[in-house]
Design a protein that fits this description.
single chain; about 350 residues; mainly alpha; Fic-like fold; 2 domains; 16 helices; globular; Fic family protein; Fido; Fido-like_dom_sf
Amino acid sequence: MKNLLRNRRIEKKLKTKDVAQALGIDQALISKFENGTRKPTKEHLFKLAEILDIAYETLLVAWLKDKIYAEIGTDQFVYEAILQVKEEMAFYASFKRAPLSKKLERILKEIDTFKNELNQFRKYDSFRITQALELEYTFESNKIEGNTLTLKETDLIVNEGLTISGKSMREHLEAINHQEAIAYIKELMDKNTAINEREILCIHNLILRGIYPEDAGKYRKVQVMIKGSSHMPPQPFLVAKEMEELFIWYQTNKNNLHPVILAAEMHERLVTIHPFIDGNGRTSRLLMNLILLQHGYVIANIKGTHESRMSYYNALEACQVENNKEHFLLLIAQTEKECLERYLSIIKPN
């Protein structure tokens, strides 16, 4: 691994002090990582992968290989022992994640059929269609959180710059901010930017800008409770660590899960951590839709009606309290399927 770190740093034209500053550690430690006299921690690996633009899995495998070699060396029975460990790990890995239900697998297949069909008709897409659907997403996502603006009022605020009599400044800002956050995740998609802590904080900063400026783009420093839920989010001093683990989970699983499942999981995991004072739901849904857009799907727009909102909250509650993700995964998959079908119905020639 030492050669991998050094060679990649040189390719990126970075000095050891640059990497040290990004990691928040002493420069001498970087030199020791590169000459093999010290091993980075598992937490360092994730940040090194970001800084040096190396796949996290590649670094993790190299790190584990060095760790195993340092522990057991070249004993004559090492190879046989490793083979037995491999067999046992494969056996237990099959129990780590419950298989997807047949219903969920069926919906995922239907989603991919619609996506493949949509790809054939992308040339008929237009800015006007995209603009209208994104406005609906802003309207519905804010409505879930209690915003009382109508779709038309949202349009007048966002696209005409008008002020709606009788509506609060916060509701106006929520509409404007969310629309700007959509533009930001589309920019991240276009640039193929990696999903990391910085981007999540930037999304959240846009959501709360001008509403809670002191909390925008910052993790909460107080304990919170979720109104109407029995789930208790982690204490504030645990938030940064839980977020770090979230990104490690993402890097480990991003190539192993269906994109719709990956997007739904990241949504649920982020909103369960509840890292912010406010704006957790909107930020989590934007993260979910960033992942969907990156993989060529369309925005999954969860409706803000009472019935839809309660189904959404109940599905999240089942994840957080009962550790049952089936209902939530089904809800997101069904939403994506319906949004794909609608998109097709709009742009597909008669």
